[in-house]
Amino acid sequence: MSFQAYLDNIKAKTGKTPEDFKKMLEKAKLLKPDMKATDLVKWLKENFDLGHGHSMAIWAVFKQKGWVSDPAKKK
Questions:
Q1: Phi and psi of 12, rounded to 5°?
Q2: Distance (Å, rounded) from C-alpha 66 to C-alpha 8?
Q3: Is the confidence at residue 47, as pLDDT, over 80?
């Protein structure tokens, strides 16, 4: 499955885009630059019944857009 297919499936299942998830996390005061992937995965699982792979696709968008820090870039 392509990366875009993951995002398309998430949109079809939840009606949400990565930007929508970001806004929801900001409103709940849960989004922080040092947020961990495990925190996002847990939140997506509990609130949207997303699995690990789909949640990690959202995490990848968050890192790519700079909404969370990328530990790999800190070295």
A1: -65, -40
A2: 21
A3: yes
State how far Cα 12 lies from the chain centre: 15
Helix, coil or strand: residue 65: coil
Identify residue 12 by its one-letter amino acid code.
A
Which secondary structure element, helix H or strand E, spans residue 24, and what is its range?
helix 18-27
Q: Are 44 and 50 in contact (CB under 8 A)?
A: yes
Q: Which one-letter DSSP state was computed for residue 8?
A: H
Q: Per-residue pLDDT tens for 2-21?
A: 889 989 999 999 999 999 99
Cα–Cα nearest to 52, from 71, 35, 38? 38
